[in-house]
Amino acid sequence: MVIAKDIIVGILGLYALAWAVALAFMVFLALVLVVSRGRSDAVRGAFRRAVAAGAPEGAVHRAGRVGSPADTAGAISGLQSVDPGFDVTAFLDSARIAVGAYAMAHAAQDDRLLRRITTSSYWQTPNGKAVAAAVAEWRRYAGDRPGVTNHGRMVLDISWRQPEVKNVALGDQGMDRITVRLASVIAGAAGPGWQRTDEVTRFDWDFVRPAGQGTDPGAVLLPRTCADCGGPYRSDLDDACPYCHAARPDTQAGWRLDRMYLVVGP
Amino acid sequence: MLKLPFMILRVIPHVGGILRGEAATDSGARARSSGEELTPADDQAVVASALATLKSRDGGFDLTATTRGVVRAREVVDLARQAGDASAARQVMSDGLWRVFVLLLAERAAHGVRRQGTSVVVGAEVVAATRDRLAEQLRIRLACRGERREVTGVVLRGQYGQQRWDEDWIIRRSADATTPASGGVLSGRCPQCGAALRIEADGSCAYCRALVLAGGRDWVVWSIEEAPW
To answer: For residue A144, what pLDDT is reported?
Structure first.
């Protein structure tokens, strides 16, 4: 009888401890919100620096001046000398598709396009894992039906600000790598009541391809036509060719999104 | 309720990601003020000098015709938004911009979001003109007047009644591109063959098969930025 009582008291004690830890965690998160979304830019700056200092390798980049335009132009000229089909305007334009793909995965839990344009290692990065976790949580709720619309969240608009090529590295460990820095602006809304959930986040986006590969001007990031019949896809979300119904492969030639670093700083 | 503390505790392993995301992201009102506001206009003397340089390099460049083309592009995109049919905007947007536009319209359709209201452009001004070794870019600020709102049962953004607002339309082309004799994409002509612009679903001219909406040959609408609404 005494033992049973001790066990019950122990369970209740553990439960109370769980509540205490959970409440402390909630208070901590509330404090984070107050600090990071408060009016004081100085406090917010200190918070950002502390987070950047404590972040694991590969999660964040500190904000800072992007490399000199002359250096970047020189590096791109070097790339064009070995790949005459490469055009930086077309490349940046295609990089925008990655922003749209990320917005759909992050804000609407639809990761079909993001999976199509990323390397497998992307999903092992901190940001890739965060996206995968959010999508998995939604899938669990939605009954594991890929592509099903999340009727509780929507993306109203996706745009970007000030895209810049930050770094070009050719032949690094057998890969060509281009880093693009930009701010993605996602205007969204979430139910109930459709409150606005606008976000502006700066990222460095790393795109890679096997070293020495040439650019196909029609498929910088993602082919627009079916490899089997040549018919055009209607949307980058198409899972199959609308003409011959061949399944759209996820891994294709061209640049791939390999990493995204949150850019932390004022 | 019994499970609530354990549900909260499940979030703790993700606290690092939450903190990093919070540190790198502006949200709510701060997002609107820091990220969605239009980029401040450059000094007019700097803009005028850049336009003069552009004109000296490309004798065929006509700012009035270019601006008229951008205003026409805005009308086309507006109609496409209202109709929920991205194909109408295919021939005025850069390839990447259009492909994201397709995603957005699909997302709107899935949620039953409709764009309502009509508006006109009452003024246009180049507020930034830049050129580097790789590309030329013009930021054209359009002063708009009319109604705009997006609704799905409730008004998601915008409002009823006449308003005025600004939109930045950014056009871009490669640094070595020049204005085609036909007038080019913004005049509704293929910059490669000069035919009336008809774009295939793969982004090529229906006549000469050249990829004309990547910015390598001529101005394309490269980005659309709106002040918060």
So the answer is: 63
Q: Does A126 touch chain B (CB under 8 A)?
A: yes
CATH number, span A63-264: 3.10.450
**Total-model pTM:** 0.85
Contact B129, B55 (CB under 8 A): no
Mean of the per-residue pLDDT values for chain A?
Answer: 84
Contact residues on chain B for A77, CB-CB shorter than 8 A: 133
> Alpha-carbon distance B58 to B153, whole Å?
50
Residues 152-191 of A with CB under 8 A from B: 154-162, 183, 185, 187, 189
ipTM: 0.83
Domains of chain B with bracketed CATH: 1-36 (no CATH), 42-226 (3.10.450.240)
| CA–CA distance, A23 with A158 (Å, rounded to integer) | 36
Cα of B122 to nearest chain A Cα, Å: 24
Query: Which residues does B4 contact at the CB level (< 8 Å), separation at least 6?
Result: A22
Give which of B201, B212, B190, B207 is closest to A229, Cα–Cα: B201
Alpha carbon B93 to its chain centroid, in Å, reads 8
CB pair distance less than 8 Å for B222 and A93: yes
Number of helices (H) and strands (E), helices first, in chain B? 6, 6
